[in-house]
Amino acid sequence: MPNIYKILRFGTLIKSKRIKLLGIWGLHILGKRYIGIFFDPVLACNFRCKMCYFSDEGWRKEHKGVLSFDDIELIGKALFHRALKFQIGCGAEPTLHKDLIKIIALGKQYKIPYISLTTNGNLLTKEQLLEAAEAGLNEITVSVHGLTEKTYESLMTNGKFDVFRQLLENISAVRKQYPAFKLRINYTINNDNLDELSNLWDVIGYDIDVLQLRPIQKIGESEYADFDRKAIYDKYDTILLPLIEECQRRNIICIAPKKENILLLETDEETDDRIEKATYCYVSPASCWKDDFDYRKDTFDSYAKSHHTGKRLFRNIFQKNNSRKVDVTRKMNYDIN
Ligand code: SF4
């Protein structure tokens, strides 16, 4: 199993976009894996987290649906052989899909090197966790928005803090049986849960592989409206930095922004998205990869051939910065420590 974080860290060390684009082109023409499939098998969530668009009724009404396993098999046949990473659960809750374990096994069947599940975890039993690890799941990422019962249950509406703690115990037990099975914690930081981060190790313990610290950003309409990151910036040295340093001491990967990146505001600044465009593949009941890609008829390779993807990727290497204006919250730059 490749260490996906080593690959990502290596990617951040290569500063030249051209070299990265050359690598992508090379992998493309050699028929190798280079895309990341970001997969929401169901557009629904059992939670209504205040910072998430699932707290917005209008958004929920417009975004729903479930992919049948028959369709997922077709998608697998069309795309999975070119995937380097299979991320199950991106903007919704994948454990609501009844065939979750079969989906993981399908990724394994196509030999995708890294299969990861992002979830609030409240519906996962110990038996399902064991089945998931057995089926080939490499990593579970648990989303957390609070480290006390009060904050967790207030910010993660419908969530139960006791269940979250039990989940951590269950994952720990599964990791004893499957030592390579990784646990990642994603903590979204806002003004109401910032101070609790100091208790992170008491609540979560050190039995984790990856910690992501994500300062709040506006990603859509949501019940929560305080997007001010000034306090996160001000307390960086006393709250975030000790966590980053403790991770380094304990060999835990910590994904966190540099202090100076926290206050960079939403702007219409320009961004170069050539790498993301070439490697990012989002699949949900509402869309599959490209607007004109039909997984019932096309495969990755037939589509790439008819759309001259190889030539386009080659031209990309030599083109000047193909910037576009961004009019939503700017993406935050994270370091992999
Ligand atoms: S668990 Fe995740 S997808 Fe569900 S409401 Fe919370 S943040 Fe949104």
pLDDT averaged over residues? 92
- For the terminal residues, how far apart are their CA atoms? 21 Å
CATH top level assignment: Alpha Beta
Q: Give me the side-by-side strand order of the main sheet.
A: 10-9-1-2-3-4-5-6-7-12
Please write the string of helix (H) and strand (E) elements.
HHEHHEHEHEHHEHEHHEHEHEEHHEE
State Rg. 20 Å
**Assembly level:** single chain
Helix content: 40-55%
Helix run count: 15
CATH superfamily: Aldolase class I
Strand content: 15-25%
The major sheet is characterized as:
10 strands, mixed
Give the overall shape, derived from the CA principal axes.
globular
CATH topological fold name = TIM Barrel
Structural class by secondary-structure content:
alpha/beta
CATH architecture assignment name:
Alpha-Beta Barrel
Bound molecules: iron/sulfur cluster
Topology, number of strands: 12
Number of domains: 1
Low-pLDDT sequence parts: 325-329
Could you walk me through the main structural features you see in this protein, from its secondary elements to its overall organization?
- With 337 residues, the protein is α/β, with parallel strands linked by helices.
- The protein has a single domain, classed as Aldolase class I (TIM Barrel, Alpha-Beta Barrel).
- Helix content is 40%, strand content 17%.
- The protein has 15 helices and twelve strands.
- It has helices at 4-13, 17-29, 57-62, 69-79, 100-109, 126-135, 149-155, 161-177, 200-204, 230-234, 236-249, 259-262, 274-279, 300-306, 309-318; strands at residues 35-39, 83-88, 114-119, 139-144, 182-189, 210-215, 253-256, 270-272, 280-284, 287-288, 323-325, 335-336.
- The protein has a ten-stranded mixed beta sheet with strand order 10-9-1-2-3-4-5-6-7-12. A two-stranded antiparallel ribbon has the order 8-11.
- Helix 4 (69-79) runs parallel beside helix 5 and helix 6 crosses helix 8.
- Mean pLDDT is 92; it is low at 325-329.
- Iron/sulfur cluster binds at residues 45, 47-49, 52, 54, 92-93, 120, 143, 156.
- Iron/sulfur cluster (SF4) binds next to loops.
